[in-house]
């Protein structure tokens, strides 16, 4: 079987759907909603989303729109000097919503830094999402309140954490699972490969969710992998799926398949969600310097929100009332996000000592004592005058 | 409660650790009503051109900076009149105001250095004129502030930051005192709290402060265009930095050789007629470039780089031939990758493409980096010789002079010949006079007798 993206032509005919991804010879990409909004049937994956009602489809749509709005507002806040940095997720909404909305509350999420849409859907407080990006905290929330770790900046490192956590689930004999998010670039990291070796060896309940957004900052995915990313799973003996990452239903179906396997003791699964980073890597990046604008145009035609809109329209569900409701919701969230951001207090200097150790530590206490006395010398100029003047 | 208030928007750090950005264009004008997040300007940083969304809903009352201006992070660029309601109040620029001016970006990998001598001067200005109106004026501040901003750094640049302790620096900042102006009486000139207090308490203003104050009071010499001041930025800024760094790190030696290039000119004429070169642009530069490439094979030492950090000389086994090009944006030196592998006809195509792209201002960063040796064609300006400065990181640069009909010795007679002077600068750290001379002699020999190519190849 040809598994090389470069070896397109011939083999790629047949069912390799109109998502229009070139190549795709090794694995057919799972797609349930075409870019035009047509629901196509897939005997293997349809059963996994059979239960998704019209109402739920509408709520998926709402989440897609809301996280795009969050992303837009946060990007604006960065340009206005309210955030130090922001990694836009534009274009990856369906990958994030479809996967996180398949999880149970007792499953645990290990995100990279771009999963801010996942965080929203998981119920992380809006201001908490921004805390780190504003530089007001080194971690935005308590991971155990929502069963989602804080963003990992080190590329791929969270795959190891997730594997370890999943080994813990196994030891507990629980039927929950862990999911770890990472990008195409991370698949080249040693950490990710080590994590996959351990996950396979111990058959841990973990979903490796790779959002292939095609760009590792300025490095195109084709330079990093001469096979489709999904084919890497086979090398570790991990069952793998390639799904249209811009199709919220397909992502949901694939994630449910993987979670089901994990819960039944079937071990890890690798999912390649084929999507596209429509914006810059972060607000400090300029993709026009390395990216062909035609590529952007091609992917704009596969927009994850547009196709659900079209599908709802076909079903007669996209009423004016529904649209207005979603818009109001997005506006409200954006307003709350902004207010939470600009009203966020700066951290106190002594906060730096807060989360170093979970138990008291005399060495740290001493440092804290010295530092607080140093800080006090600013506050009491009269008292300090003599001391300073004498120096 | 529909009272209004004026809000300033200060230029934020739009990347990670940037100190300045250029206003490319304003999308709004004074008097325009804007909504929250409406795009109001386009700004270019060292990393990207980005759009600025409005942080307020309100009416624009002032644009403080003209398009084309490079603005320091933290400086106000636009003012708004906003309704004094809750929404805008929470969005007050307070955090930005408090945080931005004292931010000193020094992220690893970005190397942005803040001239710490620039800021205290600005604080000094506020101290001198405390009664500045709250409403920003519409027009750009008169150029009379320029001397204040530019002069002191030149004087104080080599000096250290005044010695004091953090609490004293804080006290000075709270009182609006610039420590540069305070004389320290502590050990080793350490500035103490008392020094700061005495300074505020109407003590003698140091001479420098008097000077600044006086400058502020002087009227601007605005009338008459006796001189034009152009901000140093963009290509000019980079060129200047590159030239200074090159001139003061690499000890330059320049050698000259005047050669009779008549045979080359005849060859050029013949090649132009030949089919193989139909439609190709052939110039003396094409032949000179080829001569350099052939001569480099015999003298590879000139196709090298001094790696100070690693204490190594890097010898390139390929030639990325840089060609200095005058473009509307200034001097750029794009290079032809692996030029040594190109046949003459391909070289001519590459040369034409390179210069056309450069003149159109479309040279990509990749084309500008990685050069190993350069040629500058000053002959096109009618110049004979010069002492070119090395493109940083390269060991040699050849300047081609104009081809002139000159009385010259030819077969023991004086004849009118086509003569050209070659000027070669090289980095004497890694290239000795012997190597440089042999290389230049080879280039000259090839141009004087292109048939030598057979001998040297």
Strand order of the largest sheet of chain A: 1-2-3-7-6
- The level-1 CATH class of the largest domain in chain A: Alpha Beta
Binned strand content of chain A: 5-15%
The sequence of SSEs of chain A as H and E is HHEHHHHEHEEEHHEHEHHHHH
**Which stretches of chain A are poorly predicted, pLDDT < 50 over at least 5 residues?**
1-25, 383-391
Oligomeric state as shown: heterodimer
- The residue ranges of chain B in which pLDDT falls below 50 over 5 or more consecutive positions are 86-158, 203-219
Strand % of chain B is: 15-25%
Any idea of the CATH topology of the largest domain in chain A? Answer: Rossmann fold
Which CATH first-tier class of the largest domain in chain B would you pick?
Answer: Alpha Beta
Biggest β-sheet description of chain B: 7 strands, mixed
The strand count of chain B comes to 19
Written description of the protein model:
The complex is a heterodimer of chains A (391) and B (457). Chain A folds into 2 domains: 46-342, Rossmann fold; 352-389. Chain A contains 15 helices and 7 strands. Chain A has helices at residues 54-79, 93-100, 116-122, 126-131, 143-146, 157-172, 190-202, 221-224, 230-236, 248-263, 293-300, 304-314, 320-342, 362-379, 381-389; strands at 108-110, 178-183, 206-212, 215-216, 219-220, 240-244, 269-274. In chain A, the strands form 2 sheets. Chain A has a 5-stranded parallel beta sheet, with helices on both faces. A two-stranded antiparallel ribbon of chain A has the order 4-5. In chain A, helix 1 (54-79) packs antiparallel against helix 12 (304-314) and helix 2 packs parallel to helix 3. Chain A is globular and about 70 Å long. The model of chain A is unreliable at 1-25 and 383-391 (pLDDT under 50). Chain B is α+β, with helices and mostly antiparallel strands and 457 residues long. Chain B folds into 3 domains: 1-107, OB fold (Dihydrolipoamide Acetyltransferase, E2P) (Beta Barrel), CATH 2.40.50.100; 115-218, Dihydrolipoamide Transferase (Irregular), CATH 4.10.320.10; 235-456, Chloramphenicol Acetyltransferase (2-Layer Sandwich). Helix content of chain B is 32%, strand content 23%. Chain B has 14 helices and 19 strands. In chain B, helix 3 crosses helix 4 and helix 10 (284-298) crosses helix 13 (433-448). The longest helix of chain B is centred in the middle third of the chain and has 16 residues, at 234-249. The N and C termini of chain B lie far apart (88 Å). The relative contact order of chain B is 0.09. At the A-B interface, helix 1, helix 13 and helix 15 of A face strand 5, helix 2 and helix 5 of B.
